[in-house]
Amino acid sequence: MGNTPGIVVTGASGRMGQMLIRTVLASDRARLVGAVERPGHDWIGQDLGVMMGGAPIDLRVTDDPLAVFAKAQAVLDFTIPAATIGFAALAAQTRAVHVIGTTGLGDDDLAKINAASRHAVIVRAGNMSLGVNVLTKITKIVAAALDDDFDIEVIESHHNQKIDAPSGTALMLGQAAADGRGVDLADVSDSGRDGITGARKRGDIGFSAIRGGDIVGEHDVMFAGAGERIILRHVSTDRGLYAKGALRAALWGQDKKPGEYDMFDVLGL
User: Fold this and answer.
1) Beta strands in 172-242 (DSSP E)
2) Would you say 59 and 47 are in contact if contact means Cβ atoms under 8 Å apart?
3) Is residue 2 predicted with pLDDT exceeding 70?
4) What is the pTM assigned to this prediction?
5) Number of helices (H) and strands (E), helices first, in the chain?
6) How far apart are CA 167 and CA 217, in angstroms?
7) What is the largest distance, in Å, between two alpha-carbon atoms of the chain?
8) Catalytic residue positions?
9) What angle (nearest 5°) sits at the alpha carbon of residue 122, between those of residues 120 and 126?
């Protein structure tokens, strides 16, 4: 196991953080070397295994990411934009592969991530699952085949604790549709309908967000024409899909040159 890549998981206490940790611990292709939480968190200094409700694993949760990044080959990061930007700079400093599943990143955030990618491998995607990335490819193809007589609507559903909307996956699908039509998504995006909005603008790509219960993730891309509809759908029932995809990305990035990559690269799509 000593020759396998060492992995650090940020946001260790979160539901995705814990899933990432379990996935790494269960793998014979990687080893967990660090778990990071924000300063002041109850988990800091505690045994990770115990805090996750199990037996001790002799690994303490830390609020010093640089120290654990320095002994790792990859960082799995599904946190929040402000934290991810800081982690990107530290991962670049230590030359660790930075796998980013964080959503809600703004243009300034993306610019900082791009700058960090000049020094280390970054794999960033709105969704790490194979199925969603195949759906993204299909969405682009269908959008290219249909003209503006077909309205495009991206409908996404997630659990009631999700803090951003539209989801990163929905935006990825919307971007694929825009690319298929050869337009700039920023010019045609419509995600703020409320009240008397008037008729839908021809060529717009709409986004609808549903939040409730424990929905892991459901995404539909609807192409609605006169008298017919095409609906492409992906349903996630286990967030372990994303954790497995993130670990796959971390392993894939080990021999790559510095740069920013996505799951299309990892999956050969």
Assistant:
1) 189-190, 205-211, 217-225, 228-236
2) yes
3) no
4) 0.81
5) 10, 11
6) 9
7) 62
8) 158, 162
9) 170
Residue 26 · residue 244 · CB < 8 Å: no
> What is the Cα 65 distance to its own chain's centre?
20
How far is 269 from 264, CA to CA, in rounded Å? 5
Whether 62 and 68 have beta carbons less than 8 Å apart is answered as yes
**Residue at 169: amino acid letter:** T
Q: What is the DSSP letter of 239?
A: T
Angle at 120 between CA 247 and CA 268, to 5 degrees: 50
Q: Cis omega before residue 166 (within 30°)?
A: yes
- Give the pLDDT confidence of 215-263 residue by residue, as tens digits: 999 999 999 999 999 999 999 998 889 999 999 999 999 999 999 999 9
* Cβ(97)–Cβ(234) below 8 Å: no
Domains of the chain: 6-124+239-267 (3.40.50.720), 130-236 (3.30.360.10)
- Tell me the three state secondary structure of residue 26: helix
Residue keyed to tokens 């969603």: 132
